[in-house]
Fold this sequence. Notes:
Blueprint: H1 3-16, H2 27-38, H3 45-54, H4 62-75, H5 86-94, H6 100-109, H7 114-124, H8 132-143, H9 147-157, H10 160-163, E1 171-181, E2 184-185, H11 186-189, H12 201-205, H13 213-225, E3 230-236, E4 240-242, H14 247-257, E5 259-262, E6 265-270, E7 273-276, H15 282-290, E8 294-297, E9 301-303, E10 321-323, E11 332-336, E12 341-344, E13 347-351, H16 358-366, H17 369-386, H18 409-417, E14 418-419, E15 431-435, E16 438-441, H19 443-455, E17 467-470, H20 481-497, E18 500-501, H21 516-523, E19 530-533, E20 544-547, H22 550-559, E21 561-565, E22 569-575, H23 584-598, E23 609-615, H24 619-628, E24 636-641, H25 643-662, H26 671-688, E25 704-709, E26 717-719, E27 737-739, E28 751-755, H27 761-778, E29 787-790, H28 794-803, H29 805-812, E30 813-816, E31 834-837, E32 856-859, E33 879-882, H30 885-894, H31 900-907
Helix pairs in contact: 2-3, 2-4, 4-5, 4-6, 5-7, 6-7, 7-9, 8-9, 9-17, 16-17, 19-20, 19-22, 25-26, 27-29, 27-30
Amino acid sequence: xSRYSEYLNEIEVxxxxxxxxxxxxxxxxxxxxxxxxxxxxxxxxxxxxxFFIYNVLxxxxxxxxxxxxxxxxxxxxxxxxxxxxxxxxFEQLSHMKGGPSIEVLLDLALGQxxxxxxxxxxxxxxxxxxxxxxMERLEKAFNxxxxxxxxxxxxxxxxxxFTKLPELPETIELVTFVAGVGDISTDLLSPGSDAHSxxxxxLHGQSMFEHNKEKQQALLDLxxxxxxxxxxxxxxxxxxxxxxxxxxxxNNVALWIGKQASEYVPFINIAPVVAGTNGISPIFxxxxxxxxxxxxxxxxxxxxxxxxxxxxxxxxxEPVLEQSYSVDTGTVLTINTKTKKLYEGDKELMxxxxxxxxxxxxxxxxxxxxxxxxxxxxxxFAAKTLGKDVIPVFAPxxxxxxxxxxxxxxEKIFNKNAVGTxxxxxxxxxxxxxxxxxxxxxxxxxxxxxxxxEMMAATVIxxxxxxxxxxxxxxxxxxxxxxxxxxxxxxKFMNDFGLITARHPEHKYHxxxxxxxKVLNDITIDDWAIIIGGDSHTRMSKxxxxxxxxxxxxxxxxxxxxxxxxxxxxxVTFKGEMKDHxxxxxVVHATQSQMLKQFKGENVFQGRIIEVHIGTLPSDQAFTFxxxxxxxxxxxxxxxxxxxxxxxxxxxxxxxxxxxIDKGMDNEQQVLQGLIDKANKRIEEIRSGEKxxxxxxxxxxxxxxxxxxxxxxxxxxxxxxxxxNEDVSKRYTHDTIRELSFYGGDKHVDLGFVGSCMVxxxxxxxxxxxxxxxxxxxxxxxxxxxxxxTAPTYNIIDELKEEGDWEILQKYSxxxxxxxxxxxxxxxxxxxxxxxxxPGCNLCMGNQEKAAKGDxxxxxxxxxxxxxxxxxSDRKKGESLLASTPVVVLSxxxxxxxxxxxxxxxxxxxxxxxxxxxxxxxxxxxxxHLLSY
Length: 933
C-alpha cells in the first residue's frame, strides 16, 4: 500500500472522530503527493494540491525539506504548476519558518537570476529564524561584494522584519467565559490522561475542559453570539493555569479562542486571552507569552475592611472577599492598549499595564516571544557584519539598579549569567537575557518540544548549555502502545540533538525511567546555575530552576538562553528545634501554613523566589522543600547552603553522574564527564575560599522575610484538598494545611502512595524501617488499604538493595516491577498489598494510572488537583491528601488516618529526615562574590 493510500485510510478514521487530516511531516508521503500534483490527470491531484499548500508542517521536518525543494523548482521554472505561481511559491516559503526554506531562499537570493534574487531577498527580509550557518552564508556573500546580501543585511540591521509588522489595535473587545471557580489547573485545559495526544493538536484539543462537551459547546455558542470579539477565558476567584508547565494547555486554549498563526499551517493558533481573579500562574503566563497572548490579573475580588479599617474575616479566620466588578460569562469588556486600562463600556475597571509591558507588547506584535528572541540575535549579527552599532528598535531591557542596595541570591545569579546588559548591577524587576546551564525535557511534553525545535529550524543543542537531559518518567508506569510509538521516536530525536537521553535509540544501555527532577538535581553541579525544565517541578536545590513550557525548553536548547524579569524574593529562615518524631515534609507544609497566617491570607510566595536558608540539609532532602515551592505558587526557589553541606551535595551528584557514565549514557561530546570536571572545580573553589557557596548580601532587599517556627510543629501536617468546602474557590488549593489530630484517627483512606519527586532515598528507607518496626511490635503487618511505593530513581533502588532495605520491601510486596516485562495496561483495581512500582512519576502524574474513582488517597506527592491522582465517582468526590511518608504508610496499614499515639509508636526509633537551622547568618558583605562574575 502506498503512503498516500495509508494517509487516506487514516483520514477516514479521523473523520469518524470528527477530526481533519493530520498535518504532514513525512518526506515520503509528501514526495508521493508531489508526484500526483505533477500528473495533470491524476485522480487525487486536487486533494494533493490542498494537502501540499495547506497541510504541511513547517520548520525542519522532513516534509518541509521536500516542500521547500519543490517550491524552488517552481520558482526557477524547472516545474510548472498552474495553481502555484512564482509569487505564490514565495508566499508559501515565507510561512515555513526557517530551516530548509531559508536555505532555499538564500540559494535563490544569491543566485544568478536577478528578478528571482530580488524577490527572494524581499521574503528573506521578513524572516527571523536564521541560524549560524545561514548567517555565515550571508556574511560571506556580503564580504564577496554581493549587493543583494548587503541589502538583506541592512534590512536586518534596521530590524524591518519587526518594524514593518502591523501595530496592535488601540482597542481589543473581549467577552468573558468563566472556565471555573477557584484555581484552574492545566489538567482542566490539557488533561494528563491525554498526554499521548499532545503532538496531535487537533485531537488533543478535544480534551479541553476534560472532555466536557457541554462546556465546549457553551464556549462555541458564546463565540457565535460575539463574532466580533475575542473570548477571554477566566478563572473566577482563583489563579489561571496552576500546577503544570504545559504548553499543551495554552495550545488548547489558543486552538479554541486564539487566532490561526498561518493560513497554510493547520491547528497552530496563537494569541489567546486568559485571566484570573488572582492572576496567572507564572509558568503559564510565560507560555502565554510564547504565543503572543494576553494574561490579565483581574483582582475583581478584594479583601473586605470595616469602617475602622480592620480586615473582616470569617469564622475560620479567613479574609472575607467582596466583588469589585463582575466577570461573569458573557460580560463584554474592552482593553485599551494605549492607556493600558480595562473598561466595561465607559467605566474604567483597572490598570492592566503589567500585562502590557513593552516586552509583552512586542511578543503580541510579533506573534510570540520566539520571533523577538531570534530577531534581536539577527539584528545584532547584521550590525556587527556592517560594522555599526545596534540601533534601538526593540524595547530596551528594563534595568533597575539601586545604589548601595545589596543583592539577593537570585539577583546574584542573574547578574552572573546576564548577557547584553549595560554592565550595571541589576536588581529585581530588571528584564534580562541570561545564559542557561542545564535544560531538561520530559517525555509527555518532549514531542511538543521536538516539534517546536523543528519549527524554529534548530538541529543541535546550543554549545552554551552545560548539559541537557530527556526523561522517560512521565510514561514510566505503563509501556502501552502509545508509549511504544511515541517514546523511542522522541528519544532518537533528542539523542541526535545532543541531549543525554533516558533511552538510547540503539538500546546501548538499560532504559531508565528516573524522575526528571531528580536527574536534573543530580546533574546540576553549580549553585550559581540557571536551570530550565519542561515541568512545573523543575525546582533544584542547587542553583535556581524555572519550570517552563515545551516551547521555552526548546528555545533554551536551541539558543542556550532565556529571557525573563529578575523576580522579587521572599527570605525564609528557621528558628527553634525540630522534634524527633517530625519529618521534614511536615516542616514544608508548616511553612505554607505559618506564612498564610502571618500575612493574613496573602500568599507572599506567589510569583516570587523563595530564598530558603536551609543550611545543613543536603540536596536530596532539601529538594523536598524546593519541589513543594511549585505548590506555594512560587516562581522558583533557591537553597542557601553551608560550605560542607554543599560539598557533600556535589559529591553525591558526582557519584550519580559517574553511575550514568558507567551505564554508557555519556555521548560523543562527553557531556556527563564535563559535568564531573565542573563539579570538581566547584568543590575546589569552595574549599580554597576562592568562590564560597552562594549567599545573599546582608543588605539585600526582599519583598518579605519570614521565619518558620520549628518549636510549634508537634504533629504531622497534611495538605487537604477540602473537596466539600462550601466555598468552591477554596477547594483543591494547597493552602489548607491541617494537623493530623484534626482527623481524629477515623478518616477512611482507600490507598497510600509513597513516591514521585517529593521522596528521596531516606523516605524509602523509612517505609522499610516502619514495616520492620511494626512487625517487631505486632508480630505481622497487614494492609487494610493498598500501598504503592515508587522510588524516584534506579540508583536509589540499587543503594537500597546494597543496604538491605529492598529485601524487606520485597518481603511485604505483592507486586514488584519487572523491566523485562513492563505493564502494558494501566491498573484499574488495587488489592490490599504493597506494590513496588517502576521508578517514575506514577500516580502523581495521573496520565496512565490513577486510584479508583472516588477514593481517598494519602500521598507523598504534590498533586491534589481534582481528577489528577483520583477522579470523582457517583458516590463521592475523589480526594488526594498530601502528607509525609510515615503518615502515608501508616494510613495504608490502618486503612484510615492514624492517631498521634499510633503514629508515635510506628516511628519510634526511626531516624526521620532530620533538620537543624544553621547556627549563623548565611549572608555575605555587600559586593561579596562580585569578583567571581
